Amino acid sequence: MKRIFEIDPWKVITHNFDPKDKRLQESMTAIGNDYMGMRGNFEEGYSGDSLQGTYLAGVWFPDKTVVGWWKNGYPKYFGKTPNAPSFIGIGITVNGEKIDLAKVKFDDFELALDMHQGLLTRSFVYEGKDVKVKFEFERFLHIIQKEAALIKVKATVLEGHAKIDFDSTLDGTVVNEDSNYGDRFWIPLGEDKDEKTIQVKTKANPYDVPQFTVLLKESLRHNGEAVNGDVTTEDAKLSEKFSVDLNENESYELEKDVIVVTSRDVEDKDQPAVADNLMKKLQSKSFDENLADHTEAWKKRWETSDVEIAGDDAAQQGIRFNICQLFMTYYGEDKRLNVGPKGFTGEKYGGATYWDTEAYIVPMYLAVTKPSVTRALLQYRHDQLPGAYHNAKEQGLPGALFPMVTFNGIECHNEWEITFEEIHRNADIPHAIAMYTDYTGDDSYVKNEGMDVLVGTARFWAARVHWSKWRNKYVMHGVTGPNEYENNVNNNWFTNTMARWLLKYTLERLPLATKEAQERVHVTDEEKAKWQDIVDNMYLPEDKERGIFLQQDDFLDKDIRPVSEIEDQRPINQHWSWDKILRSPFIKQADVLQGIYFLNDEYTMEQKEKNFDFYEPLTVHESSLSPCIHSILAAELGKQEKAVELYQRTARLDLDNYNNDTVDGLHITSMSGSWLAIVQGFAGMRYDHNQLKFNPFVPEGWDHYSFKINYRGRLIEVYVDHEGTKLTLLKGEDLDVLVHDKKITLKEGETTNA
Amino acid sequence: MKRIFEIDPWKVITHNFDPKDKRLQESMTAIGNDYMGMRGNFEEGYSGDSLQGTYLAGVWFPDKTVVGWWKNGYPKYFGKTPNAPSFIGIGITVNGEKIDLAKVKFDDFELALDMHQGLLTRSFVYEGKDVKVKFEFERFLHIIQKEAALIKVKATVLEGHAKIDFDSTLDGTVVNEDSNYGDRFWIPLGEDKDEKTIQVKTKANPYDVPQFTVLLKESLRHNGEAVNGDVTTEDAKLSEKFSVDLNENESYELEKDVIVVTSRDVEDKDQPAVADNLMKKLQSKSFDENLADHTEAWKKRWETSDVEIAGDDAAQQGIRFNICQLFMTYYGEDKRLNVGPKGFTGEKYGGATYWDTEAYIVPMYLAVTKPSVTRALLQYRHDQLPGAYHNAKEQGLPGALFPMVTFNGIECHNEWEITFEEIHRNADIPHAIAMYTDYTGDDSYVKNEGMDVLVGTARFWAARVHWSKWRNKYVMHGVTGPNEYENNVNNNWFTNTMARWLLKYTLERLPLATKEAQERVHVTDEEKAKWQDIVDNMYLPEDKERGIFLQQDDFLDKDIRPVSEIEDQRPINQHWSWDKILRSPFIKQADVLQGIYFLNDEYTMEQKEKNFDFYEPLTVHESSLSPCIHSILAAELGKQEKAVELYQRTARLDLDNYNNDTVDGLHITSMSGSWLAIVQGFAGMRYDHNQLKFNPFVPEGWDHYSFKINYRGRLIEVYVDHEGTKLTLLKGEDLDVLVHDKKITLKEGETTNA
């Protein structure tokens, strides 16, 4: 655990600069506008250790697979969001000395991400020979005009005289640290000194993955007037230089406006003209006017999604940081996109789509965005069904297998124990169809496109199990469950349970599907009978005596002991060799408990409690996706202290660098976990069988908390303090909800005590 | 299965040249002299698909590890025998046309490896415009003067006139196809035009692995006279050109003598002088005189090791090919060396030391070479104990863990399921100590150095098991058995059995060790008690009803069906994705049966039969190490037809390319399996409890077979035909042996019928 930013309810702010935490700081001050994003790199450059990163949503590159030992069925490439051309560069030299915080003397450092308006600011006082200059930076990525990045730097001479040379750059010569073969992913297409543009294209590839073209255009302003410096170019680079002379107490403000267009939206040849128009539009307003528009749009986002926590600023900061970073990554405004595990904050995991989206993002986004956003996420998978069929075929199996990691539906992960075995995803992903249908009450998706997904995955599962004569049951061998600290196990309870659920749900929903869908999927009676047989005879390992489900066959053969015995060796993934991790009883991430969470209403409180009591002490939570699930179950079981402890771990995972890996980027897809921990955990929200329910409590030490949810056309505010719960129907038709199992009728504009 | 060479008892010969089989042909015509070796590349060059390969024993390079996803504990490098500078090159141009069998017209092709004398010959008739020239090549690596390679080419003009340009080369600009990062492993140190030498050095590395320097020197002769062509050099390359003019029926014979010295034997600066002396020594005799010496030495090797099979030339060719290739790889004359799985025949597996040596090479070499050879192989591991301690520490465990793959004792393999889990090697390797002691009757090793090995590995095993409260037994989780088609299993019967054996044997032998050894290893009473407890309470999975040992926990949960059901999908490692292989019941390589083979006298015939009948139908034998073990057990069980079928698969594995992978090189370490199948299988040789025993039969279709063994200072010939068995004590003191459980006394010079 390491906390390098101060506690503040609306800001991520620090007054320290420690070079050894530079990467961590960069991750934490990443900004994005769900079209593009970037790490908190410095405009003026930085020669010390740093991870330079700019990323464009939906722009990717298939990097040829690298493995030590090839296994049949491995994908040919790993899809990566390439580090995009960098456009923040404003080199600064004062009286001949280059400003570089790795080298120069400076003081009064401040770095802050204002979460309320998605604005990154930074300031410091440079102390040169006979001169002191204060530099103040502001930077944001416009959430209305998504192609626009705006940067402002203000220099104020505090002492002496300063000749300041600025060098504004666009730089397409960037590389990915994680490039498999050290390749550059971008090739230069051309630069234009007059238009101040550079255009680059992703390298050709042999995998039929489209090449992406990107054009960047810059324009400088000073007090609303165009600044035209001396422009030079080289391959994939543009530099615009000019100087100012400032005396003591004088200051100079430079605005850098940038437009980024990609071939996702604009054909290569049209990019210059489109960028030009976009720049004109942007510059029809001043920096401050643009910022005001942007801030207003952020305000609207917060109005329906803010979670307020009174009495615990650390918890408050955590949840707002998470919501802010999530919205900076994905707000559902471009249906072609999805949510990468690290968003726009780092290279790790390649920036593609994982099962995290359905398991963690969907349940939150159902409540904080419009239903169409979630539906688009479902449709995204439907569109990728051809890839899923391809993946199953690679494994010699029928049906559809959704990938672990993808941009286009085709699997690109290459560890056999994950690629081929962590197949629970193939039930978790369709499970979002059920969540969507239950929460929204809209069954039009499951009746149509959803049925293609259900039947495709059902066919995979029916072939992936086999009949064990020995057990007289259907079994499933060679899988990796959500707990990736076990590989290639047999009869993982979670996977078997979810596969069974998928088959059952498909059988239930199939007769209700549209005629067209039924004809399209064409499930034979024989298939239905087989599926039903699997549902009826799936082997689910359990220990009846202990009243627990067994994570996998022979789990009790392990040397079972609590995590508390190995505190000095955590995180174990940074201390132990892989075999030691595998044979230990320690659990990376909720596994049996993940299943109980997903299918919550199928288990009794006694079952939940016994399993929680058995598995939680074994869980190291070294996946960011883990603690929220445990927190929600702990809350349901009345284990409030545990629920809060696990909430903190979720909400401040990155802010406090719990897993010592935030240098690589933020854990974007698990950030929704903190929202779920409050809403499904502390407030106990459930929505099964068309009934919205709450079972709230306030954690000790908190005064109150409140949040808002969209539910079937209504906007509801839930406010919980130590007196009880107040529900306000801000918008929409009357609704009956259960609070602590008591029915309450909400009416528009009214607040009801419960 | 693919057979591209003709059947011949002493030759591997073909009259066909099919470019698509070039690599396969090159593997099969590899030659070596246990100092260096090379694939069957063509002297004149070949522009089609080919794997150029020359290898120097004990010269290696640590190639930086490449993996898709790093796991804690992975080694930093993979040790590889670099493709060494090539010295066979004799470029040939006839009337301006370069001879290149990928391009020119030719006829009367013949290629033959004469196994009796380790000589490679090749001839063809080139048909150019108005010219026909016959070329005849001879090549051998001298087994007395190991640094010497001798090549002869004879050109005879059959039609027309030929101006022939020769270009004899030494070429250090070679690369490894399997280089992880496409690096060249050699850097040039210098060339000398007068001395006709090139000197190269392996690239620097950050792993404390010594750099190797190699010097090559060439000298050309014609009819015993020096030929001095026009020498040019460039970095790491030397070329010596000259021409001859030949009229019809004239011929010209060119001899190329090469000396190769390495820094393993000669310091860099002394290499030119040493090479010069060696060249002088070599050239004190003609090519034919040198070949005669070499052939005489080979004859001596064959005299004590030939296996004769009458009535089945394919079987005869197979066993001789295997013995010849084994001896070309390793004859025990350099104690610093070991036996790489592909010897000098390809790049795959990196050319290092595997557990194959102890499990497959030792039991044969005990009988066909002097005891000192096997003892040196044991000592090799003792010398590498520091590496083994390092490996255990990398896994967070005490004691010593011998590596899967190594040059220096430090593990260099990098698949977690092998590196960390295929640990049965750590009992198989010490098991050779018991074999040596039992066979030779010499207990001086086990009492001294051997005790360090036994106690080091015992300490590893005692920590690697854990107590299962559930089973009330010691268990071992997360291992890969010899059957690598199962990964990360629990309680692999073989591994548990061998670990238990190791602890038991160590406890038995410890009190008999020298005082110094006992003091050195310092085993406490507490340790002994713990080891005994593990011996007494090790969990060994079995199915009592079926009377079989279970390969691992829950093996019967699989969809058990015989290999015969999937004949069309074999080899499965080339048809199925890895997960499908893992969850199938199919066995790559003897696993339970390997254990029964190792500890043969611990099991009843009923146990052997039941396990054989259960596991053999499940075994695909896709490891070259598998069929011999099954053959030996089949022979013991009287299943003669099966024994012969499996012998053929072992003996002709490469000759018939059974596993469709001989293009990569020969399966050197499994070649001893064919010898074992005859001697331990068909002849039923056993040597437990100081008693040499035989239980011979002759396979149907064979007339007779015979072989010789060294046994405790004696040389014994065993001859088996359909009449019975004849034993001849060629040398040594009287010996009582059991044949079909009947005692027979052998006397020197006498043949005894049994």
Automatic annotation (TrEMBL), chains A, B:
What keywords does the record list, in alphabetical order? Hydrolase
Highest taxon in the source lineage: Bacteria
Q: GO MF annotations for this entry?
A: hydrolase activity
Family (UniProt) = Belongs to the glycosyl hydrolase 65 family.
Q: Which Gene3D superfamilies match?
A: 1.50.10.10, Glycoside hydrolase, family 65, N-terminal domain, Maltose phosphorylase, domain 3
Q: Which named protein is this? A: Glycoside hydrolase family 65 protein
Does this entry carry the keyword Hydrolase? yes
SUPFAM superfamilies per the UniProt record, alphabetical = Galactose mutarotase-like, Six-hairpin glycosidases
The Glycoside hydrolase family 65 C-terminal domain covers: 685-746
Keyword Hydrolase found: yes
PANTHER family annotated for this entry?
A: GLYCOSYL HYDROLASE-RELATED (PTHR11051), MALTOSE PHOSPHORYLASE (PTHR11051:SF14)
